[in-house]
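1st attempt posting a full record on here, be nice pls
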Amino acid sequence: MTEFHDQDLTGASFERVNLRDASFTRVHLNDARLRAVDLTGVQIRGAMLSRSRMRGVELEDVDISGDLRNVIVNGVDIAPLVEAELNRRYPERAKLRPDDSDGFREAWTILERLWEETLTRARTFPEADLHRSVDDEWSFIQTLRHLSFASAAWVGRMILGDAAPWHPLDLPWDEAPGWDGIPWDRQARPTLDEALAVRRERQAMVRRVMENLTDEQLASEVTRLEPGWPRLEGFPLKECLHIVVMEEWEHRQYAERGLTILDKEK
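the predicted structure (as tokens):
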């Protein structure tokens, strides 16, 4: 098998080449041109498809999960349609893009209640199942670890100013570039209670921020330029909280889906 590592193939041309079962990790395909290609069975994770154009494509039995904005399919922007359908299915979801401090407090209360319901369900499974990866996604416990990381990053670091708010069990997203000083042990197998101990601390941290939040503070910006992540200047504080809220919502959906699959396998 031919392997390419740390090479610059800018402008390379591939014609009548068989790349079946090839693996591409941290590969830049910016402005690439793909014509008459067969992508049957392709799996894409953590990809940026901004400003992409697809013409003459055939999409059948396709499952897409991600952030949709200005996605035009056959002349129709499907993003608002998807948003409306998701809000119809989950009425509380519409409350998770608040504009004022009271709205954020309500959103966090909703999320904590929903997650308690999910945890009650998770405790009905053997702990070994909570370490299982379902459909190539994180295990339930890994999901809890990632949410702890997200809260530490966007609230602990960006809002509260702790340059290194990390715990050894924190888990960044799989496609993250990696940073010195930030834990990233995907193979760790803490017990559910061990993962929850960190999770509870982070939830309480976010809750305190929400309880003391004012509309004036919500309209402010934050800057963190110390080594680590995130490193942002003049970033809206409101957006930090929006990110945490949507992380909580989306990953609960993934967790519930995983538990449903595990339940069917019993």
